[in-house]
Automatic annotation (TrEMBL):
Cofactor: Zn(2+)
Pfam families: ADH_N, ADH_zinc_N
Domain Enoyl reductase (ER): 7-336
Protein name: NADPH2:quinone reductase
GO MF term set: oxidoreductase activity; zinc ion binding
Stored Gene3D superfamilies: Medium-chain alcohol dehydrogenases, catalytic domain, NAD(P)-binding Rossmann-like Domain
Annotated family: Belongs to the zinc-containing alcohol dehydrogenase family.
InterPro entries the record matches: ADH-like_C, ADH-like_N, ADH_Zn_CS, ER, GroES-like_sf, NAD(P)-bd_dom_sf, Zn_alcohol_dh
SMART domains on file: PKS_ER
Swiss-Prot/TrEMBL keywords: Metal-binding, Oxidoreductase, Zinc
Cited SUPFAM superfamilies: GroES-like, NAD(P)-binding Rossmann-fold domains
PANTHER family per UniProt: ALCOHOL DEHYDROGENASE-RELATED (PTHR43401:SF5), L-THREONINE 3-DEHYDROGENASE (PTHR43401)
Length: 341
């Protein structure tokens, strides 16, 4: 089969590799669509420490079952047969470490993920654990279904933040994740959500999705909310943006770091203000008990996928697509390894 191969950081090619075969508890998926996200940029550049090389990346994907492992029928009955349409949670938890034992698999001491630490879905086919596959209805396209993984990350973020009904909210960063968080926040009962970004095209999308105010600087935002916001989310991972965003948290409010910063990044915060204003700071890492909810949200039209999906490229144009993402063009760029299915 054809696949994207990152041999070493910065060395990317599309080449031929052996077709995957399913293990006893696995499925082989013919990939319908796979999204590019910021983690893929980090992997391409050698900035995602868990990744071994060479690797086939790609963790936001959906497709069609084309092979079923020998034990899958006895484990899951008729859930998966040849032709079943699925989206796949890429998370691979060990199940036996201290964190897995208390239901925190996303913090697994032996954490792995399809496309991040084992071969992924920027390929014509990919083998996955059957337990990680979720059937999707016919009305959901593969491009829409490939959005389920980032939606599930956003769902987990909202679980971590635990906003109250009527809260005011500021989201810093109007990329894919920021706009998904915006949609979930509004559906979850936020009274108003403002969005901050430097990209005017993305701010227009935020306005279209229901943001009551958008701006490219914090001063304009705080002019409308001089006391700050009940909840502030950083969806950029950029240290100066994180430092600035904390200034917008209301006394007694919450601040969530959702964007992925480089592991060596540092920020300067005022511990006195965190103490004196009783500010709660939380992080949100990947997916946890949120994938089925994301399947339901996308399947029932609760997420506006038409706004999120921009260009789609064939497998051979992966480098071109990656460069587009790196330049901040479009929103959710995807690869269609087998063309339109």
């Amino acid at each position: 089969m054809r696949a994207v191969i990152i041999d070493t950081p910065g060395t990317i090619r599309v080449g031929s590799v052996p077709d995957p075969t399913p293990g006893p508890e696995e499925l082989v998926i013919k990939v319908g669509a796979c999204g590019i996200c910021g983690t893929d940029l980090h992997i391409a550049d050698g900035e995602f420490p868990p990744t071994p090389y060479p690797i086939i990346p790609g963790h936001e994907f959906a497709g069609e079952v084309v092979a079923v492992g020998t034990r899958v029928p006895e484990m899951m009955g008729e859930t998966f047969t040849i032709g079943t349409r699925v989206a796949v949670d890429p998370s691979l938890f060990c199940g036996h470490c201290a964190f897995c034992h208390v239901g925190k698999g996303n913090l697994c001491e032996n954490w792995n993920a399809i496309g991040d630490t084992v071969n992924g879905a920027f390929a014509e086919y990919v083998a996955v654990p059957a337990a990680n596959a979720y059937p999707i209805p016919e009305r959901v396209s593969y491009r829409e279904a490939a959005l389920i993984e980032p939606v599930s990350c956003a769902v987990h973020g909202i679980h971590r933040l635990q906003p109250s009904l009527g809260d005011s909210m500021l989201i810093v960063g109007a990329g894919t994740m920021g706009l998904l968080l915006l949609q979930l926040a509004l559906r979850g009962g936020a009274s108003r959500v403002a969005v901050l970004d430097l990209n005017t095209e993305r701010l227009a999308l935020a306005k279209r999705l229901g943001a009551y105010q958008t701006a490219n600087n914090l001063i304009d935002i705080l002019a409308l909310e001089p006391s700050g916001f009940d909840c502030v989310i950083d969806a950029t991972g950029v240290p100066p943006a994180i430092e600035s965003a904390l200034q917008a948290v209301k006394r007694g409010g919450k601040f969530m770091i959702f964007g992925v910063a480089p592991s060596e990044a540092r920020v300067a915060l005022s511990p006195f203000r965190i103490y004196n204003d009783e500010i709660t700071i939380v992080g949100s890492m990947a997916v946890l008990h949120s994938y089925q909810q994301a399947v339901d949200l996308v399947s029932r039209g609760a997420i506006d996928t038409s706004v999120m999906l921009t260009e789609a490229f064939p497998l051979e144009d992966f480098s071109k697509a990656l460069d587009r993402v790196r330049r901040g063009e479009g929103l959710k760029t995807q690869i269609l390894p087998n063309g339109e299915l």
